[in-house]
Amino acid sequence: MSSAVSRLPEEHSPSERPEVTPIIQFDGVGKHYGNLPVLENISLGIRRGEHIALIGPSGCGKTTLLRCINALERVDSGVLMVNGQDLSDPTLDVNRFRARIGLVFQQYNLFPHLTVLENIVLAPMKVRKTPRSLATERAHQLLKQVGIGDKAHVYPDKLSGGQKQRVAIARALALDPDILLLDEPTSALDPPMSKEVLSVIADVQKGMTVVMVTHELRFAAQMADRLVYMEGGRIVETGPPGEILKNPQEDATRRYLDIFNS
């Protein structure tokens, strides 16, 4: 397999040039499960405020890469810097580090014994020591933002899949994160609910650094500043969505896209 193709952005004047130091930087990162390589020689920089869509076949390492950013997985080689923190540093305060990162899972992971409101205020109160009154006020604001302001006192088992995912998004935003990670947030939803949730994501992602694993290529083209195509634990090709989707440079990328275009 050929090395990753990375298309450089156009030159900017000094006053317009993007932030030099990436908020997320992979440098030769590798990850193994036993003898099975899951990530191999990953090098990728993500600028503050950039929106990245990770695409590629199932099992290619996208979710593992995402979990490494949040220190849910430890890298075995190379260097991973996130928000100025070296994630291989044994003195890293993981809980404090994760307080600046929001993560939305495929399967919602809501606490079934807590109401929607209680699910959202829990992390700010426990992690940030936010007073309940302030955490509650923020939770109500977020619920309105994601379109379910009337569900604050409902339990998760009374919600549809799309509503549960909206709660998960609100919960991720409750810590006012610098980085929002989304792991196939619509994979468990039917098409109408998927469309609703994608619309919510498009609304809330402004101003944040976003990394999303997705098979929704049309949405990826709309939300992302850059697509990253992965296969076999490696980054094969990166670039602006319009270029990658219309004119991929690598055979592996072309074969993958042909499946969706056939």
Outline the structure in words.
- This protein is an alpha/beta fold.
- The chain has 9 helices and 11 strands.
- The strands form 2 sheets. Strands 1-11-10-4-9-8-7 form a 7-stranded mixed beta sheet, with helices on both faces. Strands 3-2-5-6 form a 4-stranded antiparallel beta sheet, with helices on one face.
- Strand 2 and strand 3 form a beta hairpin.
- Helix 3 runs parallel beside helix 5 (161-173) and helix 5 packs parallel to helix 6 (191-204).
- The radius of gyration is 19 Å and the shape is globular.
Question: Reading side by side through the largest sheet, how are the strands ordered?
Answer: 1-11-10-4-9-8-7
**How much helical structure, as a percent, in the residues?**
25-40%
Rounded radius of gyration (Å) = 19 Å
Number of helices: 9
Strand residue percentage:
15-25%
Shape: globular
| Biggest pleated-sheet summary | 7 strands, mixed
Catalogue the unreliable spans.
1-18
| Secondary-structure class | alpha/beta
Number of E-type strands: 11
The overall pLDDT, averaged over residues, is 89
